[in-house]
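Quick start: what a row looks like.
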Amino acid sequence: MNLETKTILITGASSGIGYEMAKQFAAANCNLILLARRKDKLDELAQELKSESKTIFTYKCDVSKKEEVEFVFREIRTKISHIDIAILNSGIGHNITVENFDSKFADETFGVNVLGIIYCIGELLKDFLPRKEGIIVGVSSIADVRGFPKSGIYAASKAAASTLLESFRVELIPHNIKVITVRPGWVTTPMIKKNDFKMPFLMSAEKAAEIIISGIKKEKKVIEFPIGTVIGGKIIKVLPNFIFDYLASKGLPQKETSA
């Protein structure tokens, strides 16, 4: 697929993978629609890219809020005729121990990682279905394979996102609308700064963006990387429960015994 002059929408474009994708799409002479909660960061990026991209629109949008998503898409429709590719990249995560468990983290995480995708797809389909074309790219995670300690809410949200995207991928085939699921491993973004554990095969956001864009050009159904983490994830997924529990529980507090 030739990306030149395509109109690309990216959520979560103010940092990390979304930020790097915006830069690379601009270099390919694409029109950009950038969404994020931090409008100031988007405007700084747009200023940086204005000499490369033909058109750049920026919008403040919290994708976990349906009314904001609907408002922003109404605004977008007044500015451009159509979107060719929508990359639903917004994501958050928390590392939470059972001692500090609070359901508010679930509200925040599922709000962005799952409902954010749902709200955006709802708006995109209003335009994609009548045109019978369009590409939806949803960013999930290799963490969707199992329930990892301290990351249960995050892993569950990504499992939900992957399942949702797969369902839409199949259902939209008759409408000539393509859905791509992105499953990255560890990527250097602001979200991982608080992690206090080893992150094997850690990749730069710039390299991750390159891989994603290459996969979009090839219209892959699933884009997953890096290969070491992909293989590890497939092995972890099929481990018997007793082996997974043993390995995943290493580093947790020792089992308490009654006096």
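That is the whole record. The chain has one domain: 7-248. The beta strands are 7-11, 31-36, 56-60, 85-88, 135-139, 178-184, 187-188, 203-204, 222-225.
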